[in-house]
Amino acid sequence: MRPEYGKTRFDLILKPVSGKAVPVYKGEVLRIAQVEGGQCVDFNCYNLHDYKEHMAVGPSGGLRKKKDDLVMTNPARNRPMLAILEMPESCVTDIIAPGCSAPVFERRAGIEAHTNCQDTFSECIGEYGLTPDDTHNSFNLWMNSSWTSDGKYYSSSDRNTGKKGDYVDFLALMDVLAVPVTCGGGDFSRGSNYWFKPIQIQIFKTSDDLNVLTNDYIARHQPKTSRGLEDYRVKDIRTQRELEALAGYAPRFKNFPLQISEFAIELTDDDYLNLQKLQQMGLGDDDEDGLRSAVIEWYISNYNTAGSPIPR
Amino acid sequence: MNDKTRKLQVRFNQQQLELLDNLKASGKFGNSYEEVIRSVFRQYVAQTIGRRQS
Fold first, then answer.
1. A32 with A98, same domain?
2. Which DSSP string do the residues of A159-226 spell out, in sequence order?
3. Which of B16, B34, B41 sits opposite A294 (nearest CB)?
4. Residue A180 in contact with residue A32, Cβ under 8 Å?
5. Which of B25, B40, B49 sits opposite A298 (nearest CB)?
6. Residue range A225-257, pLDDT digits in tens
7. Would residue A215 count as lying in a domain?
8. Cβ(A39)–Cβ(A197) under 8 Å?
């Protein structure tokens, strides 16, 4: 059942080639909506209380983000940041493209003064004292890119399918600074169907339903192994830009050096024949590799994180 | 069933052994690492080669 949202506390029409950095508090909903349709939206997002923790755009759960997916923060934080409560089928997402920047248009069309998402992001986050270096890879909404199994990527290969009134709702699972921008490259591509359009940004206050949902998401997806600066020896964020090695520093890698145990496993001829078959299927380059791979692969496929069998 | 046997050496690191410890503790796959490894290998074979042949 769809949760009931609180009242609208923020409502802004983003004109073409602009954006806005806006705080969204834990339990609130950020809505990004098509006003006319066919406009690509680029999106950055930061922990409001620690800008070094930001959205990590990566293929966790798939190469296209969908309704009910989570957006996590960057390693080593790895915390749930946003939950996608609503996302229409027309909103094809691209989490591969980094966001367009000036050199794209210099290369494509020889134009140096073209609008682009990197510059728009930088102008938006400047309001909070962040620099262009603080932008991160973009979560691209309504960007219909494609790729092939052999790794070829085609940015905005298909026309933008966003319709007037379509919207995406993000539930904030922590206090964030959200930075949606109207993509500045779509007048030269199918990204926005060769014409810039406005986008609407709304923020809905939290509610009893949203509070329950937020706590539930966090309880289910907050990893115990999330790490911050307090978990490492170097805790001060470097302000000196020139890099030089810290005197006396030696890394302390986890579980290093690895402890290796060796076992002699008695296999029947039938077992061994099967091991050869597995290697022919691509599992392992030699007998030991094949046997070890089979054992670990079976465990990972059949047991859950609590060390219990996964119900079939 | 062919009863001839041969021994293969296989190495695991301590992180992988944690997984085998879980299986050993369950009591379903044998009492020693060697028994667990062989038993799980056969489970894997049944799930992969067995499925392909069925």
1. yes
2. ----BTT-EEEEEESS-EEEEEEE-SSTTSSGGGTTS---EEEEEEPP-HHHHHHHHHHHHHH--TT-
3. B41
4. yes
5. B40
6. 999 888 898 998 899 999 999 999 998 999 999
7. yes
8. yes
Residue A134 inside a domain? The answer is yes
ipTM, two decimals: 0.94
- How far apart CA A62 and CA A98 sit, in angstroms, is 17
Together in a domain, A133 and A273 = no
Give the pLDDT band (50/70/90) at residue A153: very high
Q: Which residues of B fall within a CB distance of 8 Å from A258?
A: 13-15
The secondary element (H helix, E strand) that includes residue A42 is strand A41-47
Answer yes or no: do A111 and A174 share one domain: yes
Q: What is the pLDDT of residues B6-54, one digit of tens each?
A: 999 999 999 999 999 999 999 999 999 999 999 999 999 999 998 666 5
A50 and A139 belong to one structural domain: yes
Average pLDDT, chain A: 94
Q: Which domain holds residue A12?
A: 8-226
Quote the tokens at residue A35. Answer: 């006003």
Amino acid identity of A194?
Y
* Spatial CA neighbour of A296 closest among B19, B28, B4: B19
Residues of chain B in contact with residue A302, where contact means CB-CB under 8 angstroms, are: 43
On the question of pLDDT at A25 being above 60, the answer is: yes
Hey, how many other C-beta atoms are within 10 angstroms of the C-beta on B34?
Answer: 15
Mutate to test the interface with A, among B41, B49, B52 (most CBs of A within 10 A): B41
Q: Retrieve residue A177's tokens.
A: 């600074």
